[in-house]
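INFO  loader      accepted 1 record
INFO  loader      residues=184
INFO  predictor   begin
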Amino acid sequence: MKRMSVMAVAVGLFFVFIGCGRISPTGPSEAVAANVTKSATGTETTATAVLSLSPSQATINVGEEVTVDAVVENVVDLWGIAATVMFDNKHLQFVKAEEGMLLKVQNTTAFMHAIAEWGPNQLAVGLVSLGKVPGVTGYGTLFRVTFKAISSGQSELKFVETALRDSTNSDMKFEQRSTAITVR
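INFO  predictor   done
INFO  writer      dumping tokens
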């Protein structure tokens, strides 16, 4: 039951903020148009959205920090995300999480993160646009997470219990990709 509590709070942000906020342009966008193509029948199709952790792999020494970006590509009308990032806390220690530029360039946003109460190796993240505003189309960084290497070994970082939502607050289909951090 505890497993769902943090995820429920993150997804709940989508419902709480759907009627609040305003559009707040802040300058050049990190978002770039999604890959839209026409099929043989003339209808437009969009490539599948991909949510990944970047870099795809890294090697660091004990005591060093590494920052991993949560990047989305080929997204259409993205309004928010609720995600849990799993990592091996024997090798990595959570330092901080920060909002990326993708959503906040176009909209006022709310960003939250917390180490999950059910385990010290899971980071829950929620990021939503505030109000009845259009979602973002294209690609860019949603958030970044910094870890400190505390012992030698390898840690896979991967998304679990993740949801992308569009401006109608509906689930979006997407692929997800993990990363590996090697600590020497």
